Amino acid sequence: QLVGCKTYLIDGDLYGEVIDVLNLPGQDVLVIKTEDGESLIPFVHQLVPTVDIKAKKMVVIPPEVQL
User: Fold this and answer.
1) What is the pLDDT of residue 42?
2) C-alpha closest to that of 13 among 41, 34, 43, 31
3) E strands, the chain, where?
4) Closest by Cα among 42, 58, 40 to 50
5) What string of pLDDT tens digits covers the 67 residues of the chain?
6) How far apart are CA 48 and CA 26, in angstroms?
7) Are 16 and 32 in contact (CB under 8 A)?
C-alpha cells in the first residue's frame, strides 16, 4: 500500500516517491526515490508523522534534515 506514495517535506515540498518497503527486524524502512538518488527512512512516527493511504501521500522528515 505504501509503494507509489508521494512523499513531502514538512514545508510541503515534494521529496520523492516510495519505491520499496524493507521489512527489517527492528522496523520497516521506506526506500524513497528522490532527485538525488535513493533515501532510506525508518517508518516510525517521528520521521513519518503523516500517512494518507487514500491520497497516496505522506509527510517525511529525512534524517539528513533533522534539527
Assistant:
1) 95
2) 34
3) 6-8, 14-23, 28-34, 37-42, 50-52, 57-59
4) 58
5) 899 999 999 999 999 999 999 999 999 999 999 998 999 999 999 999 999 999 999 999 987 654 4
6) 16
7) yes
